[in-house]
Amino acid sequence: MLAAARHQIILERLLAEGAVQVSELSERFGVTPKTIREDLEKLEEKGLLRRTHGGAVASAEEAEPMLPLQIPNTKHLSEKEAIARHALRYIQPNDVIALDAGSTTLEIAKRLPNEPLTVLTNDLLIMQELIGKDRIRLVVPGGYRQRNVLIGNEALDWLNRLNVQKLFLTATGIHEKYGLTVFTGELIDLKKAYMTNAREIYCVADHTKFDRAALLTFASLDEVDVLITDAGLTDDAVRRYEGGRATLERAL
Amino acid sequence: MLAAARHQIILERLLAEGAVQVSELSERFGVTPKTIREDLEKLEEKGLLRRTHGGAVASAEEAEPMLPLQIPNTKHLSEKEAIARHALRYIQPNDVIALDAGSTTLEIAKRLPNEPLTVLTNDLLIMQELIGKDRIRLVVPGGYRQRNVLIGNEALDWLNRLNVQKLFLTATGIHEKYGLTVFTGELIDLKKAYMTNAREIYCVADHTKFDRAALLTFASLDEVDVLITDAGLTDDAVRRYEGGRATLERAL
DNA sequence: ACCTATTCGAACTTTTTCGAACGTTTTTTT
DNA sequence: AAAAAAACGTTCGAAAAAGTTCGAATAGGT
């Protein structure tokens, strides 16, 4: 068995389960634990996972949008709050908006006024946030739960009949060359469905997401209309990202 | 099980519920309480939680579970609790169950153990209740919100491909002649879809629902396997409803 | 044949997990 | 409110599991 083939399978397993074990993998591939550790080391160098004792887990940054309950979120909370406040300026009463899953979009949801508004989302925490806001029309494409997001949607064509005005999109990594990336493949179909149906696409991401690439690219930067980030983005990066089709805006 | 995986789950539980218990976690993971305490110590060092006697609470200010939800229907709560406890006896690990929208089924959801189990629901409050229970596989047919329920038959054909073992059904009225009734027509399609796909149908309803008919009939009493109600149902009514195909059970 | 990358063995170190005895806090009983 | 009981926590240390380092054997490519 080729090392590259093992790596591929390890990553797939990681996507599905969120964590892998050295012992399990060594038995699965019929190689020594030593070899698996070397595999994991190489994958960690590439930033595709994070090593732990006994195995590895999806690396913190990349797993973040899938793990809205994890603490790393609150690390950049003030930045996310600033981004959310900024994004709110684009939301008017009677809009039809889609909120992608993530902690930044959750901050947007928290600040949505209880006014006539249609919100699409697959994020359970966002739904929870909107339960009390009775004037907001909530629309949920179904699915099964992976952590706090409903994914694996069988009825995405239903989504295609909806007319979304504004999409607030999240990503694990934003990179000049690789575009918008995520770590888990299941989210991609949903993001793409939202994107093809949205008239205006706002990508919300704190500065730590920039110049990073996760495993899978789901869109190029050109497909985004507005990139909303925080003041922490370096001037150098601002210069590089300002050039594209997307307008770059830094929330105060 | 990986230590890192435990930590992750502990944190998720902590933010969903506000607090965790050592004893509960040690049983959940099959490790000694000592190990859980060491886990909690490490997480506390990172500032991710605060230790208490017997467990830990979220490090932030909120020791209370986040409950910005609407005023629940607390009418006849003790009866509903009794019915829920009774209904739980029909739920085994690895079951695939559907929880119809309602306050009685919400009581069932609250009492579901965090064990391997697949739960279908359209009730937002039930979803919220299940957010912290990571071992429960949650499946949501989509829709748009009407109060706290997702309705809309767009994804009902998807539902027809699912194989539900047990359905816990609610109704506004239960009547010998008019069968199971509700006031709003939107819920009917969903209930019917659940019913055609369920092998066993349990109708949960407190005694005040009996001998009442709401506007719209969605099923006859013969389609139900078990009728679960509380002790408040009059003997006269018991005699009348016992005769049908459905078994009548009164929760204590 | 030479170089390089992969895989693994073996001795050694670290981390994790847990048992058991002994304090401490919380709850119940009197 | 004091005493007793139960539950929880701490310390020490040991056993098991996982990781590390070093170096050697193997296989592929040039």
Could you explain the architecture of this structure?
The structure is a homodimer of 252-residue chains. In chain A, a hairpin with a 2-residue loop joins strand 7 and strand 8. Chain A is built from eleven helices and 15 strands. The first copy, chain A, is an alpha/beta fold. Chain A has helices spanning 3-17, 22-29, 33-45, 60-63, 72-75, 77-88, 103-111, 124-130, 156-159, 186-197, 235-242, and strands at 19-21, 50-52, 55-57, 96-99, 117-121, 136-140, 143-146, 149-151, 164-169, 173-175, 179-182, 198-204, 216-219, 226-230, 247-251. Chain A starts with a helix and ends with a strand. Helix content of chain A is 38%, strand content 25%. Chain A has two domains: 3-58, Winged helix-like DNA-binding domain superfamily/Winged helix DNA-binding domain (Arc Repressor Mutant, subunit A, Orthogonal Bundle), CATH 1.10.10; 66-251, Rossmann fold (3-Layer(aba) Sandwich). The first copy, chain A, is globular, with a radius of gyration of 19 Å. In chain A, helix 2 packs across helix 3 (33-45) and helix 7 (103-111) runs parallel beside helix 8 (124-130). A seven-stranded parallel β-sheet of chain A has the order 6-5-4-9-12-14-15, sandwiched between helices. Chain A has a three-stranded antiparallel β-sheet with strand order 1-3-2. Chain A binds a DNA duplex (30 and 30 nucleotides) through helix 3. Chains A, B: Keywords: DNA-binding, Transcription, Transcription regulation. Chains A, B: It comes from Cohnella xylanilytica. Chains A, B: One of its GO terms (molecular function) is DNA-binding transcription factor activity.
